[in-house]
């Protein structure tokens, strides 16, 4: 969502950073670093240090770190993270949060060092590891793309066999392989610094890098030649976790919070003759809830509406004669499957 790239500026990562802003500063596939003492403590939990605790890996710093922490708090995960420590234990659940560089999380989940984690789809793809993709989280969205100096190449095929700089070597190799001839393989060079500067410095003919808004790309005189994949933050788990019920509880809590963050509850009164029209305006997730009023010619209706459409929906309801129209924010939810 291998998001979270760009080192200390990563959206979700820690480690050497790439200069791209926003989500282009989201994820990065950096080499796995040795875990800190606190992280080692967490990873040894199954050996008895915290026996019976599921280990949940969270990106330890960056812009998306705060987004994830907000989501966890809103989902009911009550914990206190001591300053400078990379582990925190939930107060009311047998879950320990482990704060790791986002680029390492997919590997640690796959190898069973932790049970579940949040990272980027790009990191999962780059790592090539076997994890269960439980849920897309809907934030940290960006795309991994082939970029080159503006006006220099019309397609990725034109860059095959040339010099490419990236922090996603496996994805880049796989992508360019479809265009290569056997006698002219693409020269993939891995760097963990400012990938965008490689072309300007004469180190590469093109790059493979993450883009969110494209501001940094354009500032470096580059343009997108093609998109390799679209990525966002995802929740992944180890296929052989010893805590499948806890994993499912985590998934449902996060799903409930995300649903609540995207919707509001709209309620209004409407004449029964207009109810069919109103129901089309507010169909809800399954159907609107309709309640009788003392005045049998009228009824009260409530339904979920996407936040982004709430004002438009209220305008339409008022147009067809609905009254007492209210919207209510949601804190969390359980919608069922």
Question: What is this structure's SSE topology?
Answer:
Layout: H1 37-43, E1 54-59, H2 63-74, E2 87-89, E3 95-100, H3 102-110, E4 116-120, H4 121-127, E5 132-136, E6 142-149, E7 163-166, H5 169-177, E8 187-190, E9 206-211, H6 215-219, E10 222-231, E11 233-237, H7 244-262, E12 263-271, H8 275-281, E13 289-292, E14 298-306, H9 310-319, E15 323-329
Parallel strand pairs: 1-3, 1-4, 7-8, 7-9
Antiparallel strand pairs: 2-3, 4-11, 5-11, 6-9, 6-10, 12-14, 12-15, 13-14
DSSP summary, beta strand count? 15
The whole-angstrom Rg is 24 Å
CATH superfamily of the largest domain: Periplasmic binding protein-like II
**Distance separating the two termini:** 23 Å
How large is the count of helical segments? Answer: 9
Average pLDDT score = 85
Tell me the overall shape. Answer: globular
CATH level-1 class of the largest domain:
Alpha Beta
The helix content, as a percent range, equals 25-40%
The biggest sheet amounts to: 6 strands, mixed
- Please trace the helix and strand order, writing H or E for each element: HEHEEHEHEEEHEEHEEHEHEEHE
The appropriate CATH architecture of the largest domain is 3-Layer(aba) Sandwich
Provide tags for this entry.
337 residues; 27% strand; 3 domains; alpha/beta; D-Maltodextrin-Binding Protein, domain 2; 5-stranded mixed beta sheet; disordered N terminus; 6-stranded mixed beta sheet; Alpha-Beta Plaits
Quick structural overview:
This protein is of the alpha/beta class and 337 residues long. The protein contains nine helices and 15 strands. The strands form three sheets. A six-stranded mixed β-sheet has the order 2-3-1-4-11-5, sandwiched between helices.
